[in-house]
Amino acid sequence: MAITDWPEGERPREKLLQRGPKALSDAELLAIFLRVGVTGKSAVDLARELLARFDGRLTRLFAASAADVCAIKGFGPAKYAELQAVLEMASRALGQQMREPAALASPNAVRDYLRLRLAGLPHEVFQIIYLDAQNRVQGDEVLSTGTLTQTSVYPREVVKKVLAHNAAAVILAHNHPSGVAEPSQADRLLTETIKNALALVDVRVLDHLVVAGQQTTSFAERGWL
Question: How far apart (Å, rounded) are the C-alpha atoms in residues 112 and 114?
C-alpha cells in the first residue's frame, strides 16, 4: 500500500508535523529523507530494508561506504550524497554547539558530537578534544586509527599535539566497534599514562569517553581521573 493511502495521522511526514520527530521510528525518519519508494515498496518499506542491511542501526548506515549503500535498489549515488551532506551538517552543528562557552556545563553536547563521529565506524579511532584555560573547546583531532580490536596511541605524540595546540586541558575519546562501551584494562592504563605525561606540562585530562553505538562511558563519572 502506498503511503498516500495510509491514514493521514500515520503518514511519516504528517506524523512528524503533528507529534514531533521523536514520535517516529528510525524507518519512518529515513522514509521522510527518501521521499519515495520503488515499484512494489513504499518509502517506509525501502527504509526498513536499508536498515536491515545494516543490522537495524542508523550508525552503521551512516558510516557505510557508497558501494554498500548503493547496493540497495532505490538508493543511488545522488541519494547517498544527500545523506552525507545531511550528516556533515549535523556534525558541524554539533561541533559548533560543543564550542559554545557553556558546552562543558552540558556534557551531552560533547557526547552527541562524539557519537555522531565515532559510533558507526568499523574500526577503532582515538580522538582528542583541545580546550583552553577556561575549558572552552578549541578544536578536535583524530590521533590514531586502528583495527577492529586495537589502536596505537603514543603518549609522546599526544603531548606534542597538545603543546602545538597550546591547550590547557583535553578530553580523550575512542570508540569500541564491538558495541560494548565498557573500558578495558588497557584503556585505563593508557589513560593513566597520558594523564601523567600531560601533567608534566601542566595540561589536565578532563575526561576520557568510550563510545559504542549510542552508549558512552565516562572515566570522569567513574572516578578514574
Answer: 6
Kindly report, residue by residue over 177-218, the tens digit of the pLDDT. 888 899 999 899 999 999 999 999 999 999 999 999 888 999
Of residues 93 and 31, more confidence is placed in: 31
- Beta bridge partners of residue 171, listed in sequence order: 129, 207
Pairwise CA distance, residues 113 & 90, whole Å: 9
Distance CA 127, CA 124 (A): 10
Which residues are within 8 A (CB) of 45 and not within 5 positions of it... i.e. 6 or more apart? 37
What the block records as the C-alpha cell of 43 is 518509502
Span 11-25, pLDDT tens digits:
888 889 988 988 989
Alpha-helix runs per DSSP H in 39-169? 43-53, 58-63, 66-70, 77-98, 108-118, 155-164
Q: What is the dihedral of CA 179, 125, 141, 192, to 10 degrees?
A: 90
| Contacts of range 142-148, beta carbons closer than 8 Å, 24 or more positions apart | 147/123, 148/122, 148/123, 148/124, 148/177, 148/178
Q: CB–CB of 209/221 below 8 Å? A: no
